[in-house]
Amino acid sequence: MNQSIASAARFYALRLAPGQELLTELRQFMALHGLQAAWIAGATGSLTEVALRYAGRDESTRLTGTYELISLSGTLELTGEHLHLSIADEQGALLGGHVMSGCTVRTTLELVIGELTALSFSRQPCPLSGYDELVVHSR
Each residue of 93-112: pLDDT tens digit? Predict the structure, then answer.
């Protein structure tokens, strides 16, 4: 569990347009480029629809409005992702949680995605957490 493996990295930049759904576009991008061990290196933009799962909850919360994306972080692989999102509403109040399907771009979403070129990620059940958790492999 506590293994670490070094790897070189390369980076991709892309922009999502109004109306595009975040997870759909990320999954298509991962498949198109065959990325096996990626992470969100940077993100900025705005959302009009947001779907989050808050800590300790099973259900998603859906929000509609005008939101600034404050942070997006996490890991991506060909078969899934683990992403967390922080947003601010029109009054500057912050919300955050686990990204669920249904996050729709309002004006733009600019992303920088890094890929660890010597590694691949997968998810396997973890008896400690009860969730499918990240497993790192050398390619």
Answer: 999 999 999 999 999 999 99
Residue 2 pLDDT level (bands cut at 50, 70, 90): low
- Tell me, yes or no, if the pTM score tops 0.85: yes
Q: Does the residue 4 lie in any domain?
A: no
Number of separate domains in the chain: 1
Query: What is the rounded distance in angstroms from the CA atom of residue 59 to the CA atom of residue 61?
Result: 7
At 36 the pLDDT is 97
Supply the CATH number for residue 105's domain: 3.30.1330.80
